[in-house]
Amino acid sequence: MKELVVNLHNHTIYSDGSGSHKYVISQALDAGIDVLITTDHNVLVRGADRYVSANGRRLLFLAAEEVHDQNREPQKNHTLVIGANRELAQFASSPQELIDRANQAGGLTFLAHPNESELPMFHEPNISWMDWSVSGFTGLEIWNHFSEFKDAASTFWKMLFNAFHPEYYPLGPRPDTLAKWDELLGAGNRVVAVGGSDSHALHFRRLFLQKTIFPYRHHFRSINNHILIKEEPTGELEHDRALVYRALAAGSTFVGYDLPADTRGFRFTAENGDIEASMGETIGIEHGVTFRIHTPRPANTRLICNGKTIMTWSGVDKMVATGTEPGSYRVECRIEFHGKERGWIFSNPIYAEKKESYGHLE
């Protein structure tokens, strides 16, 4: 498997971010990102997709869109529309129609920041997802870096501290968001989890204080998506773009908080005889399944099935467990960083079913 680090959900001067495409690309290259997906508000920048190389590194830059109804107050129901290759903001007033149109165009849809708080000091409202009647979407943004800052900035002094020391506030996805994900999975939905930077690099000024909240490079070194593909990228734009979108659609990915420790090398697989499955795939469970977990360094890890923890490990990097119940199996890993246990890795599920159906990626 080839592993690529993908940062998605970030904003540029085409909406409410402070950086140009050229600038965010330079910061992503410096941070070691392989694929950068921008999602400016209600605007799809056509012709922006390209490969960029510098200092021995290569980055695939892709332009997507964050769509929301600008006439709604507050402007909830934000949807990340990726890979549709057409402008869809005109359907923002109807989340279901937007999802349907994106599907028809071959795009992916992720419900952005499903749960968050308001941040009155920056006149930032609570823009959680509201319309849970929708169906057919690709996935859920389980961890949003900027939303967590809003959650943590309950006072001016906490906001100020976290703005100057952003490495201290991330603890992990909100429990209510993880619970919603498990609820959706438990209802039989295939829902892909992604993590989003939601980076804007906002310039804050008040009296003698001036600060960029938060620099793009910090976001790009923090919450990322690590996709697994079965073939090497060729450097050809259309081919490699399709590889990335296919892996995201299938859930062949995990969310990693790379600032405390690099999450590259995490693996979660299942075995049943000669059959092996990885994240996003399906495996038969008639005679039990062996799950194997490998983390790049020792961590505190949980194996979860249908929203319930079935096994825990502390301070190890290789784990084996047996599953006998059908359902969605996923992994959460946490490590100590700056004196607190923090979320580190959140896998997408392996689906165990009582039938001979093994949905391997093509």
The average pLDDT value, as a whole number, equals 92
CATH class of the largest domain: Alpha Beta
Q: Examine the coordinates and then state which fold CATH places here, giving the name of the CATH topology of the largest domain.
A: TIM Barrel
The CATH architecture of the largest domain is Alpha-Beta Barrel
Distance between the termini: 13 Å
Radius of gyration: 20 Å
Helix and strand content put the structural class at: alpha+beta
Q: Helix content range of the residues, please?
A: 10-25%
Number of domains: 2
Order of helices and strands: EHEEEEHEEHHHEEEHEHEEEEEEEEE
User: What characteristic shape results from the CA principal axes?
Assistant: globular
Strand content: 35-45%
Largest sheet data: 18 strands, mixed
What is the helix tally?
Answer: 7
Poorly predicted regions: 357-362
Task: Please supply descriptive tags for the structure shown above.
single chain; 362 residues; alpha+beta; TIM Barrel; Immunoglobulin-like; 18-stranded mixed β-sheet; two-stranded antiparallel ribbon; 7 helices; 39% strand
